[in-house]
Amino acid sequence: MAQKIGFIGMGIMGKPMALNLLKGGYEVTVFNRTLSKTEPLASAGAGVAETPGGAADGADALILMLTGPEAVDSMLNEPGGVVEGGAEPGVLVNMSTVPPAYSRKLKGVLDAAGIPLVEAPVAGTKKPAETGELVILAGGDEKRVGDLEPVFMKMGKKVLHCGEIGQAAAMKLTLNLLLGIMMEGIGEALQFGKKAGLSQEMILDAVLAGPLGCPLFDIKSEALKSDEFPAQFPFKHMLKDLRFALDTARETDTATPACGAVAGVYERGMEMDLGDLDMAAVIRVLAAMPR
Ligand code: NAP
Questions:
Q1: How far apart are CA 58 and CA 157, in angstroms?
Q2: CB environment 169-199: b (16+ within 10 A), e (fewer)
Q3: Coil, helix or strand for 220?
Q4: Cα separation of 235 and 160, whole Å?
Q5: Do 32 and 64 meet the contact criterion of CB atoms below 8 Å apart?
Q6: Is residue 68 classed as helix, strand or coil in its secondary structure?
Q7: Does residue 17 contact residue 155 with C-beta atoms inside 8 Å?
Q8: Cα atoms found within 13 Å of the Cα of residue 261, Cβ hemisphere only
Q9: What tens digit of pLDDT does each residue of 85-112 get?
Q10: Are 251 and 236 in contact (CB under 8 A)?
Q11: Residue ranges making up the domain that contains 266
Q12: Which parts of 252-290 fold into alpha helices (H)?
């Protein structure tokens, strides 16, 4: 059973997840490209590695929670990286959101290096990461996923084994395709109603009171009402995942017209410098858009 955990990526999600592993009694060594972000972990008792390979050395499991493929590749292959440095963690658990095709490619790279891979992207954002209530979408060998369950259950409330490598990544993008469309949808509906003379507060109350009410709209209602969008799920990461979904749709010959249109709206938001705000700031794009 995994006892020593290496953890690379102390972003919005990685930091609270690593803290929960520490609280859960695991011995945790962290690495982050920007060293200052490891300070809260060091204060809580984690070891801090000087290189990605240093976090992997002697780890029963090495967890990556990074932006996407480019960041994962860099943590594996740069000087002092996990593969470059010849580290041999018991298993590498990639929890970053990446496309299924990338996850399958990563398996080939790690197979060659003798490192087993489990993919485990998550559903849930900053708050459930803090409270240990993420849903872990796992892909890979069933026994390996089973062995990791105690580790996952320190960070999450449920583990869903989606199938072989690539299928958990596909599940994550399936969820985020829906998430992006729903977020743009509520933004568009609010904009439509406001232009027709309704108050935003009243529209949100009506949505939440009826069959369209859902936890997502409930969670985002405060930000939408106040027009303040501190990042929970960054806007730029929503666009990243919509692009991954569109790439995957091309590969699987699937029609995703709404996803394409919503990605276009998020692209405009990047031009408006909204990338570091929460994805709910899409409402600002809609408010600024000509008809
Ligand atoms: P974040 O706050 O932006 O953190 C990204 C992490 O990746 C940071 O540790 C960053 O290091 C590192 N990184 C980025 N580019 C890198 C590179 N080229 N080389 C090395 N390290 C690099 O993102 P997050 O919100 O924690 O998300 C992490 C992953 O979880 C993403 O795949 C995201 O899609 C997914 N996710 C996020 C949420 C959410 O609500 N936030 C929910 C579910 C899934 P620095 O600190 O040095 O920049």
A1: 27
A2: bbbbbebbbebbbbbbebbbbbbebeeeeee
A3: helix
A4: 26
A5: no
A6: coil
A7: yes
A8: 12
A9: 999 999 999 999 999 999 999 999 999 9
A10: no
A11: 170-288
A12: 257-271, 282-288
Choose which residue among 15, 66, 76, 102 to substitute to test ligand 1 binding: the one with the highest number of ligand atoms within 8 A of its C-beta. 66
Answer whether 281's CB lies under 8 Å from 274's CB. Answer: yes
Burial (CB < 10 A; 0-12, 13-18, 19+), residue 121, is buried
In this prediction, residues 210-225 reach a mean pLDDT of 96
Q: Are residues 105 and 241 in the same domain?
A: no
Sequence-distant (≥ 6) Cβ neighbours of residue 33 within 8 angstroms: 71
* CATH, residue 196: 1.10.1040.10
In the prediction, which pLDDT does 291 show?
Answer: 84
Place of tokens 């600002």: 284
Amino acid present at 286: L
If asked whether residues 155 and 98 sit together in one domain, one would say yes
Q: Say which amino acid occupies 145.
A: V
Residue spans of alpha helices (H) in 156-199: 167-195
Residue 123 Cα: closest atom of ligand 1: 43
Q: Distance between CA atoms of 170 and 45, rounded to whole angstroms?
A: 35
- Both tokens assigned to 75: 């943590």
pTM, two decimal places: 0.96
Q: Which residue type, as a one-letter code, is found at position 107? A: K
Q: What gap in Å lies between CA 123 and CA 245, rounded to an integer? A: 16
Cβ–ligand 1 contact at 156 (below 6 Å) = no
Q: Are residues 45 and 89 in the same domain?
A: yes
The confidence score (pLDDT) of residue 1 equals: 59
C-alpha to C-alpha distance for 13 and 47, rounded to whole angstroms = 18
14 lines ligand 1 (CB under 6 A): yes
